[in-house]
Design brief:
globular; TIM Barrel; 724 residues; disordered N terminus; binds (2R,3S,4R,5S)-2-(hydroxymethyl)piperidine-3,4,5-triol; 30% strand; alpha+beta; Beta-galactosidase, Chain A, domain 5
Length: 724
Amino acid sequence: MNINLYKICAILLIWGNAVTFSYAQKALQLKVETKNSLLVFTVGNNGKLYQSYLGQPLIHPDDQALLQAAKHEAYIGAGMGDLFEPAIRMVHADGNPSLDLIYAGHQTDKSDGTVTLTSITLKDPKYPVTVILHFAAYYKENVIKTWTEIKHQEKKAVMLSNYASSMLHFEASKYWLSQFDGDYMTEMRMKETQLTSGIKILDSKLGTRAHMYRAPAFFLSLNKPAEENTGELLAGTLAWSGNFQCSFEIDQQNSLRMINGMNPYASEYKLMPGKTFETPAFIFTYTNQGKGQASRNLHRWARKYNIPDGDQPRLTLLNNWEATHMDFNQEVLVDLFDGAKKLGVDLFLLDDGWFGNKYPRDADKTALGDWQVDQKKLPGGIGHLVKEAGNRGLKFGIWLEPEMVSPKSELYEQHPEWVLKLPNREESLSRNQLVLDLVNPKVQDFVFNTVNDLITQNPGIAFVKWDCNRMLTNTFSPFLKADQGNLFIDYTRSLYAVMERLRKKHPHLPIMLCAGGGGRVDYGGLKYFTEFWPSDNTDGLERVFIQWGYLNFFPSLTVSSHVTSMGKQSLKFRTDVAMMGKMGYDIRVNSMTPAEIQFSKAAVENYNRISKVIWFGDLYRLVSPYEENRAVLMYVDDAKDKAVLFNYLLNFRRKEFMGKVLLSGLDPEKKYQLKEINLLPDSPSTHPDNGKTFSGDYLMKVGLNLAPGKISPLSSSVFELNVQ
Ligand code: DGJ
């Protein structure tokens, strides 16, 4: 019996029929499968693991054996002859820079009934190195989460300079990549290009606030560009809040090798014997039903498996940042509470500027690190604010930026050694601040205690906004000493370690993830945060695009969308835009007219009624603002009894023709009544179909004219659809 057959029999004994194999080909095959996708690995005669398929499920089990075996090695070690991008590169303790990975066994665990975890172990025959590839398959949601563990028992440390979370291979005729990039205030702009021979890299080297220029999320379309409802694609995203690298390399045979993981840039990692190096997860969904389906798969998965309290309601709120910046005192805030009460939101969120005594935080030059209430501005302390908010039926939330320090702060004076800074170089400031050396366990304790004490000592705090307003430039950790290559990776791991501790103590506290806008949005962070701040750009028109961008990968209940005074559009337009996500306000209610307050109060009431459909329903994008001068989208609840339709007319030109919009996701057999909501006080709907009842079939085949009569640019309408 050859070695592969021995292995097959051994595995058979242990795992029974969980293993798929074929004696005829004497090749062990492993399947990772969801309802609508299949990933197949084959162990070749040489003992190496190959990826033989990624695509739609095959109906005939026998067909699987026909899949080509020995072409694309699943997780390629550098130095062994393959000369394209490796998944892993290791320099052994003896200086040998090669890694040979041979299949050594696998396990399949279905214990929780909804997720199947397949773990494939690879070993180097000559060095005591083990690599385990993990694949968690979420059958119903059609999502696969994959990550890698690397460990060794060499005599001394090894150096790792590549460590992919995932390597996947494709054999399509053509490939298109949709990436999402931008900058501060211009987050998540979508661009689609055809990939050509060579390598395309989406990456970040920013350390903290790592996603300022680019999100670790993309669509990869196979053969032709996928549309909203058609086309074969993979939607992928890396769950990592630090430097990342997503690379797409087309070789001389037109095969595409896709590698996702932490960015190896300046991160040669020293791994000690016996320690496990675990990569972040790469999360992906494969579908042949277009980008809309891919987004819905990720949303459903995220709400169920990744986001804290993903199946629970969110709080509407009034934030004071755009209304006051740091220029406030107790009276001003209490006045704002009155405004929040008038709007009818759930919570008041106090932003930056509430702390610091020796160096009060009156501008962004001081006090980060000194997390004590500014006694001049707020003599009654947090307790007084919580009480005053409570008197108005409001919960209270607070802003923090715990990873940072101002050079002008008591913390900096007491602990200059807690700050990341390069020896023999000037400190490089960004927004007048520096980053704490979070890798240092003492700093982790400080950050944990700052947040934990604040929440524990003020039990009325019901919400935290966690900000991070700069990237890393002083990239040197006094704590790590000679192992500076570990810094970028260990920084993010340390952040997660702190969040893990906080979540253990406060599992249900809503925490908003913010990094000067959407500078840090990914599913690694969203394991701990309940929502995120997409952008400091709250202009209604810009927000249509920014929120549209994020909604491709993240569910609406995580996308904080506030009505502010930014932008030239009407209050109605800005309100309708905020409603497509997790709605809130950041506005001086005192400066609003009685009619505006009346409108906004009614809008909050409407939102409270329909928010369950928006948060937990399926998103259907109907008209993209990238294709027309309008954006139309809708949410449909699980039972297909309720839907909400958002229609935004953008900067269209005179006589621009806008066709009917076909709705999606409804039950063709059911009848729905269309009701326009969010109307201005005393203004009846002018939509000719308002109040009428249509079958789902009609709405999806004939559609609605959403630009009827006299329409103007930057106007909008929102409709509720209720089954009759
Ligand atoms: C950047 C955030 O994006 C804003 O919302 C606000 O919290 C400021 N920081 C405060 O400094």
